[in-house]
Amino acid sequence: MATSTATERGALTHPDVEQLSDVNRDVLKILSKPGKGWWILFLIASAGVGMFLGSWAWQVYRGIGVSGLNAPVGWGVYITTFVFWVGIAHSGTLISAILFLFRAPWRQSIYRAAEAMTVFAVMTAGLFPLIHVGRLWHAYWLIPYPNSRFLWPNFKSPLVWDVFAVTTYFTVSAVFFYLGTVPDIAAARDGSKGLRKKLYSVISLGWRGTDRQWHHFGKAYIFLAALATPLVLSVHSVVSWDFAMAIVPGWHATIFAPYFVAGAIFSGVAMVITLTVVMRKVFGLEAYLTTKHYDAMAKLCLLTSLIVLYAYLSEFFMAWYSGEEIERTAFWNRLFGDYWWATWIMLTCNGLVPIMLWFKRIRHSIPALFVISIFINIGMWFERYVIVVTSLHHEFEPWAWGIYRPSLTEMGIMVGSFAWFGFWFLLFTRLLPPVAIAELKEVLPPPMRKRTKEAHS
Amino acid sequence: MTDGIKRRDFLKVVGAGSAGATLTGCSTEQVERLIPYVVPPEDITPGVATWYTTVCDGCSAQCGMWVRTREGRVVKLEGNPEHPVSGGALCSRGHASLQHLYNPDRYTGPMIREDGELRPATWEEAEDLLAQEIQSAGGNVLFIGGHMGPSMNRLVSDFLGAVGGNRVQYEAISDAPLRAAAQMAFGHDVLPRYDIEHAGFLMSFGDDFIESGASPVAYQRQYARMASADDHGAKGKFVFVGPRLSLTGQNADEWIPIRPGGEAALALGMANVIAAGGGNAGPYASVLAAYDVGTAAQMSGVSESTIRDLADRFVSEGPGLALGPGVGGHHRNATGAHLAALILNAVAGSVGRTVHLEGGPRSASAPYADMEAAIGAMADEQVGVVMVHGTNPAYSLPTVSGFNDAFTSVGFKVSFSSAPDETSAMADLILPDRHFLESWGDSMPMDGVMALRQPVMQAVPYFDSKQAGDVLLSVAARNGANLGAATFYDFLRAQHQASHEPAMGDFESAWRRTLKTGVAMHAGAMETGAAAALRPLDSAITFDAPSFDGDGDFVLLVHPSPRFGAGELSNSPWMLELPDPVSKITWHSWLEMHPHAAEARGIREGDIVTVASDQGSVDVPVWLYPGIREDAVALAMGGGHTDFGRWATGNGVNAMDLLPAVTEQPSGAMVTVATTVTVSPTGERRRLATPEGSDDQHDRPIAPAVALADLGHEDESHEEGGHGELQELQGGGGFLPVPAEGGAPEAFPLEGARYGEYATAHEGPRWAMAIDLDKCTGCSACVTACQAENNVPWVGEEQVLMGREMHWMRIERYYEHVDATEASHLDVRFLPMLCQHCGNAPCEPVCPVFATYHTPEGVNAQVYNRCVGTRYCANNCPYKVRVFNWYRYTDENVPEPMNWQWNPDVTVRTNGVMEKCSFCMQRIREAENQAALEEGRPVRDGEIVPACEQSCPAEAIVFGNVRDPESRVSQVVANERTYRVLDELINTQPAVNYLKKVTFHEVQSGGHE
Question: Which residues, 6 or more positions from A76, have their beta carbon under 8 angstroms from its beta carbon?
């Protein structure tokens, strides 16, 4: 069927897709009429967004005390979830930018979804610093702006770095995401009518697929990819410094930046697996998202899992090797203290479960990967919970040790944030082509006349 | 421009609009005009505090106070430094009495019961009714009163003399057994004055002189002076004998965990040894003969060698001072135990040296026996009118005493209580008395010392109250009796005029002087007489161990609460939220139980158990306490009010439900250690509302100690570990120089330090504090003082359970060695923890908006207005002294008029902001401004006194400028015991310096056992 050249070029491509027009057909079909599955998911997500915003509104009205936070544990589920979502945001850019630069051919069919995930995950993550502050109405003081009081934020504070890191990351990843979709929006425009057509006409920026446009597009895309790449490393490094710059035993470690970046990629890829498996099922994209893609993602998970596990072990080792009693106690407490269960969930989900990915059979089983990816998501959330909560609850002063129990409002906001993310992601799947049409076509065999083809075979 | 608005039209619209706005404004709400002082009161300058002297009425100790008022409202109470009792300090309960002035539950005016319901009445009506009832009762009046000043005392007597009737003095906590014992031993019907300060070997046979008893503040000050190591390395020793470590007990150097009631035998056994070694037993030689060491050991359960050893040291390390069982240890033979302690003192020659029979506290010592008789009289319907003043017997008497039934059976019951209590709940007429801060009065805390009480503010207008003295005079006048004065003020003045000594100048100026200084010392005050000799025993007394009712497994120890007394202060949120100095539990009641005893019964901490005696039972959660014997359990007074205001009612359990109504013989005191109880789990559990994270230091240099023997030695081996090592490392470069312990204090912040640079260029002061842990008793007066000064809100039990208490200062309590099974040394460490004002503060760089920063004066400042509430600073604070406003605690928890107490010099914080100790910045500024404005000079050392230092009865806290080598704080810090918490580990360079506790036993490296 496919030419030898095509097979070579598209080693990871789709046996079921025979023609370029199939891509347009299959992908744009998603945008047309939503199926039952989509509606059910969307209703659940909308209800969750209601809970999310309602819980937040209640917290703003009543005071941050509706959370379970307290004196030793000033950060809890909110910061945990913040770091979690920033981590999720990572792999989108990794897949789209870094793998683009490295010319990894398997990125094409997943990168759009991964990029969208990045944008929405940063949107979600960015809310959490706002959610967790005591006085939301003054949170804009963290932004450096000229004011009559001649007051600037404290540039020594990692929280101010966070503001820059997260906003920069959001801006760049949103622009990158949008830029990549322009040709596909144009394709959607061409196949749509009415309001949609008007909308697509505006946001496709007059894309007509001319040579000149493709030329500029390619240049812009590669520049943005180059710009986004360091951000992948910097954002989560900065987030890790929220902890590493503090003196809290369990936070104050130089390993934090690489450890967080690896963890972020780990959780991000797992989240891409989770999302695309659902997408694949709901939108019938089996032909585009094949076991080969999942195999590649699973390998990335396995690699990052090993890095993360190494980081865990080296933290424990360093705590012991330091000989510092307070540091040692902090890590002993991590394993066997009040929050032992969180640590063991973390170790099991992030260190033990991914061991299965060594097996090709598992890497090729999509249901198995889906389950493992959920485990990893849970494990990575708990990793941040362990770092934030267990470190804070047993600090220097034994008298001030305390226990933190998340409140219902906090859990509502945390669970609601998934709904908030899902809400945008579901809208995305209906409004923008969730699989990159143009790029897929690049790896498909070029259209040839049948006769010639037959003659060759 | 036809469609534009013309200028004229615009003005019309605006005019009409504002007129409309004005009209609607008027129609909905009544206009309240804010009128500034038209004729300003002479002594009120807006923004400047006015101070008055008065006398605390929180307990019978009667400390002199300074009262800080602002714009006519009392905002803070402080000790009067000129008063011999308070000496400038004030205890927690003294501070909290302010909350009863502004208690929102106070009666709004006189009340008359009609058809079972109380209805508001006018004073005219109420007094008419009382006069009429007294008349129809035909002089059959019973007056039940608590402690009162001499003039009020006189007035009540005069009143009862005029209208006919009897009086009973009743106080829940009484010193009657000690008084009875002094009478027996020396023939003086007084409370002895203990000279704790000059004792060398102090033994308390259960006296909790630090937190309760005759004079907590004065005795605590003396104790701290005696027990702290001086410059020569001398330190008095304190041995505590008792079944349970009270706060006083926790301060001891040794603990003899004696079985309840075994004190007398131990004291007599010791006296026997001392007498055999040459002590003068006088007429008691025959008594002592019966208590040879063997017998005493058998009776007390203390080993013979321990008795001999104690006896030897009582003399050799003396002067010895033995204190009998305290107000919390009244068992059936308490007088005997007190007498035994007095005999021990006499035999060891301490009477006249550390025990004086002159100038002792005149605290209430009313025998409960009188009350028993009164209950009988009421029950027999021999009483026509009963009046209750200054006491709450319906709550503080054992439930089985029959008081309630007897009281109810009286035809007409009058209560002078200013706020609802269990007794006034049954009264027919309520004549709300003024709070003592609104009243005239006097006090005589000890012989020759007279202090005046004056109204320091206009009576709180929400409450139409009238001073009981005025009511009595008015009622007497209605019944045709002339008591010589129209108002109590006149009566008081007349009393003092009559007793005025011409040597003190003319009366008017003496009166004014006394009002100004708060106290007048008469000739002969505080003088010490000759040593009194023991008198032969002329009445029957037993020294045997007392019997306990019932056959339960545990003896129930009921003791006054360090926070509530006998329950008078239970409606103060400050006291409820103050962690109990012993258990650290807030708000609710708890049962103290030894961990072994609990384990044997499968009881865990927090299990709710049923404690049952023959008299009743209560359900209460268990707190495991290694400082109580395995055969005893303890319950504090003050909980379980049924009608005492919004915070107290229904909170905790009342120990009086378990006690039999027994009087001690011969003193007639109420027996509080009377019965055994059974303890059985209910199967329910709860979390204890405690801020305590861990009572173990986990080998961290938080509250290290140094052995007395190691003081003055340059040997580093007994200092905390790692110190020398760190210096070595620093020699190699790379590290910031960490100051050596006891190093030059003015070196803060260090030259060339990379951090804390704010202060290096500054020429002014560097504020710092020194806290001597060898003096600190853990009494927590500083905590309440800080709360009062700095508008620190209370958060409530639920929030404490969530770990959100707001105190800017806390007392950490770590156990090092506590053994309830045998006599051994005791090591409990107290550490007042407040913001350390680090020179290199971890909280400062992490704040994204500069809400916390370092002032040039070395203070770590918190700008509430700038705080957005990220809580990063609190996370990064190694001392965990930053507290967060999770809710609008100041709005939501503080009802009118309790918010009148807010200190106007300190911002009231809203929700979502961080706060912490400011070193009382407002007091620093006030002192500086006063010095600059009034005398044009810089502030002097000692003029700035933060609230905690001001209040500390142990004189453990010193504040000042460490840049000034002559300042008190520099002097104190220049001590080999000085250390800074965690400084060596994390280089925070704190401004708060601690002086290590000094122990008699050896301390291992790291400062631990």
Answer: A67, A68, A69, A388, A389, A404, A406, A410
